[in-house]
Write a structure and sequence with these properties.
176 residues, Dihydrodipicolinate Reductase, domain 2, 4 helices, alpha/beta
Length: 176
């Protein structure tokens, strides 16, 4: 799994390496093989799969303030098709007020989610023969809203039995 994040996703501590002059016009990985979120990703995948799942997670720093664009890789279950995959995603997220499915991974970008509690997801499976059964899932969120504060508000709403989108549905997006 790879995730490219704006500088606000790379921590709060100010440093020269996070200054505009160092980040501008660059793109690089950070905390390779020791990222602090790898254990929670592995834990969640193991819970969902019912077994340990090996995880490689590499974070990359984008020369922008906010947003996270993630790419995850998997394999289709034997006998499954890309249509089955897309139908499963549509079913899982049908009732989610903040997750929308893009027609393809290439249609997922940050501009549509920054400043909102939205998550846009695009999925595809290789049927071309180059890597049969390979699944690619792209997602985009605003790390400061959906990735932190907005997710906390959404979870509070659910725990309290309030409408899930309370205080979040009318956030106005903006281009970073």
């Amino acid at each position: 799994m790879d995730a490219a994040s704006g500088t606000t996703g790379a921590g709060r501590k100010g440093s020269e390496e996070m200054s505009f002059t160092e980040v501008n016009e660059d793109f690089r990985a950070y905390r390779v093989l020791k990222h602090q979120h790898t254990p929670e990703i592995a834990q969640t995948l193991a819970r969902m799969a019912g077994r340990a799942v090996p995880v490689t997670f590499t974070a990359h720093l984008l020369p922008l303030k906010r947003g996270i664009l993630s790419t995850a890789y998997a394999r289709l279950a034997p006998g499954a098709t890309e249509g089955d995959l897309k139908a499963a995603y549509a079913n899982v997220y049908a009732a989610s007020p903040f997750v929308s499915l893009a027609p393809s991974p290439e249609a997922v970008g940050l501009k549509g989610v920054v400043g909102t509690n939205r998550c846009v997801v695009g999925v595809a499976a290789d049927a071309s023969g180059m890597d049969p059964g390979r699944v690619v899932v792209m997602s985009a969120i605003d790390n400061l809203v959906k990735g932190a504060a907005g997710q906390a508000v959404q979870n509070l709403n659910l725990v309290m039995g309030w409408e899930e989108a309370l205080g979040l549905a009318h956030l106005k997006g903006f281009v970073p």
